[in-house]
Design a protein that fits this description.
Elements lengths: L1 H5 L2 H23 L1 H10 L1
Length: about 45
């Protein structure tokens, strides 16, 4: 993880922000199954 490499307060904050973004993305996809299916077809 970024914070373990850089070991700064800002790196820890950015790491947390990135994790929140991925959690929010997962929530949105779970709420919109049709969107999840469309994203899956892109892979």
């Amino acid at each position: 993880m970024l914070s373990s490499v850089l070991r700064s307060k800002r790196a820890v904050q950015m790491n947390i922000a990135i994790m929140h973004a991925f959690v929010r993305l997962r929530e949105v996809i779970a709420a919109h199954k049709d969107l999840a299916a469309r994203i899956e077809t892109l892979d």
